[in-house]
Design a protein that fits this description.
Length: 628
């Protein structure tokens, strides 16, 4: 492989694989080389509609086919072990790294651009294997396009340079990948204008305008419009342009620093420095107006910064919120911002800009209308105050919204999430197959509408847990983490999901990461952590977390009593279980009598545990405490 471009070589290997699912699996492995995947997850991902025996047979056939096609390729190995699968490439080769390096080189390489297009084309050509695989393709496409866009934007950054003609090919490639790239469109319009082809430049603008109108329901940027006006006013001016003047972006934002927590005296002023620097940097974005809310105007978007000093390290938490209702739209945590701040600030600004772009141009929400949005907020308020009196009304409202605005993905995700936890929050109720299927339907709708929504992937993962399709559950938990790992809710929920799925190692890593964010975690996250720690065998930690989380969820007492029993604290466990049984009887919503055995059965049934032995042990432990 050393004498041939490795990306070209691997793409030829990929195209040589004729079986569609074998090609899809090889592409999946090539996009993430070196990672170890559970065979169970792969089978669920590619054969989720087949029975187990047929799926296992097809899986083995696909593996044999891939092995045959890459048998003569030096440096590529497909390793299969007991229930695991991984693909290894020479010297840790990565398509993403390779293409990013190639795009940054001074000399433009048309062949490399063609290979990038081919790599991306598979994210469309391989659609239809399964809904979960389709969502992975969408995420892969988005992440790869972001990397390519960043490299191309850096290359096209200086449009005033004398070597503007050298940007024709990069700009053409950027516009080919993303027809909405206005920087590329302006470069090509200017080059056409300079070459005396004003009509061609105007045609480029018209194509851009039509695309933006159809796909995003918005007009081109002011700079693009002014360039068009200059071309029309003087078609033979040879590219002499007026500067953009008096532009006032529509989106306003504020940047606010909240009081720090545990900040040492010698670092007390550091937050002020970070705030001033970040606010200055945000002010350079011509897409947004940075305002001072003390001036009377309320910002549409609020960026909240909160420094926290914990475990000897400085962290900066960043939340992007809706200015009118405080709804969290995106969050991130920067570890040790006092080191390499320049690089970290650039990444942060890029992420904020991407988050704001999603928020501002969310066509599905604007198309749904403010009335739909208001109803969705009311439904959320009812869910937050969950009770037997409000849960029916909340679910009914969400059902109505999904019918009235079927492309409003947030309502589908909220409804699926509510159906997933209904049996937990209403003691004595049990999930039925009909409820599980309803939840899965709405969760898949949410992911289909927005494959880049981390909550949607988290919800569909829990649906697959309840359906006992744990391979697909783990897959979607991973996608949720890939999309927003900085959100404590995502970390805690995914950790619990991996624990239930029988993957204690992954759960342990994530719960440790979640605990490092303890300063911004919600109180109910304690119960997630307690359950994970119990299933990992850390009963002391689980008992301590349960003691701090008393009353937060209807399942706390069961985990607490079981943890105390495992620690040998027999009398404490018996007292705790007796109190818990009394507590649940008062909340019982089931049709049958809340006898001790029935409450214990309800408690154990709440948790979709992959290992039957884990469920049996939990049930037996509580029965032993109760003296049954």
């Amino acid at each position: 492989m050393s004498e041939v471009d490795p990306s070209a070589f691997l793409l030829r290997c990929l195209s040589a694989v004729r079986l569609r699912k074998a090609q899809a699996l090889l592409y999946f492995l090539l996009a993430d080389p070196g990672s170890v995947h559970r065979s169970e997850k792969i089978i669920d991902l590619f054969w989720q509609d087949s029975d187990q025996q047929k799926a296992s047979s097809s899986y083995r056939q696909v593996i044999r086919h891939i092995r045959k096609e890459i048998a003569d390729v030096d440096g590529i190995t497909l390793e299969t072990g007991l229930g695991v699968l991984s693909l290894h490439l020479p010297e840790g080769f990565s398509f993403h790294q390779h293409f990013a390096t190639a795009l940054s080189s001074h000399q433009w390489d048309a062949d490399n651009a063609e290979r990038i297009t081919e790599f991306l084309s598979y994210t469309h050509r391989l659609e239809g294997i399964s809904s979960s695989y389709d969502s992975w393709l969408a995420i892969t496409r988005s992440a790869f396009l972001a990397l390519v866009r960043e490299s191309l934007d850096a290359r096209m950054g200086n449009t005033q340079a004398g070597d503007l003609p050298s940007l024709r090919d990069p700009a053409g490639f950027a516009l080919q990948l993303e027809p909405s790239n206005e920087t590329a469109a302006r470069i090509l319009m200017t080059l056409d204008w300079q070459a005396g082809h004003a009509t061609r430049a105007i045609e480029r603008y018209n194509a851009l305008y039509a695309h933006l109108d159809e796909e995003f329901d918005q007009e081109p940027e002011a700079e693009t419009i002014e360039l068009l006006a200059a071309i029309k006013l003087n078609p033979t001016a040879g590219g002499v342009r007026r500067q953009v003047t008096d532009r006032r972006p529509e989106v306003s934002l504020s940047v606010r620093m909240l009081p720090g927590e545990g900040i040492p005296a010698d670092m007390a002023s550091f937050g002020t420095v970070l705030f001033a620097d970040l606010r200055m940097r945000m002010g350079r974005f011509r897409e947004w107006r940075v305002i001072d809310e003390q001036g009377g105007e309320q910002a549409q978007i609020q960026i909240m910064l909160r420094p926290v000093h914990a475990l000897g390290r400085y962290h900066l938490f960043v939340d992007v919120q809706n200015g009118s209702d405080g709804q969290l739209m995106w969050s991130e945590v920067i570890d040790q911002p006092e080191t390499e701040w320049e690089a970290k600030a650039r990444v942060l600004l890029s992420n904020i800009a991407n988050a704001l772009s999603v928020v501002v141009s969310d066509k599905s929400l604007s198309d749904s209308g403010s009335a739909i949005y208001d109803r969705w907020l009311r439904a959320q308020a009812l869910l937050d105050a969950w009770s037997p009196q409000t849960e029916g009304k909340a679910l009914s409202m969400l059902e109505d919204i999904t019918r009235d605005a079927p492309r409003f993905g947030a309502a589908h995700a909220e409804l699926a999430g509510a159906l997933n936890v209904r049996h937990v929050l209403l003691p004595g109720t049990f999930q039925t197959e009909e409820v599980k299927q309803r939840a899965l339907h709405h969760a898949i709708m949410a992911v289909s509408i927005d494959p880049l929504d981390t909550r949607a992937h988290r919800v569909v993962a829990w649906c697959y847990c309840h359906k006992r399709e744990f391979g697909l559950a783990e897959f979607h938990f991973e996608q949720s983490l890939n999309l927003n790992r900085s959100n404590p809710m995502t970390l805690a929920s995914c950790a619990l999901g991996f624990a239930f799925a029988g993957n204690p190692g992954r759960a342990g890593d994530l719960i440790a990461e979640a605990k490092s964010h303890s300063a911004v975690m919600e109180p109910f996250h304690l119960i997630y952590m307690a359950a994970v720690d119990y299933l990992r065998g850390d009963y002391a930690q689980s008992a301590e977390e349960c003691s701090r989380g008393t009353g937060l969820m209807p399942t706390v007492g069961g985990w607490h009593a079981a943890s105390l029993w495992k620690l040998g604290r027999t009398q404490d466990a018996q007292r705790r279980l007796a109190d818990y049984l009394t507590e649940i009887r008062a909340q019982w919503c089931g049709e049958d009598d809340p006898e001790d055995a029935r409450i214990i059965e309800w408690f154990v049934s709440c948790f979709p545990l992959h290992e039957e032995s884990a469920a049996a042990d939990l049930r037996r432990t509580l029965q032993d405490i109760a003296g049954d």
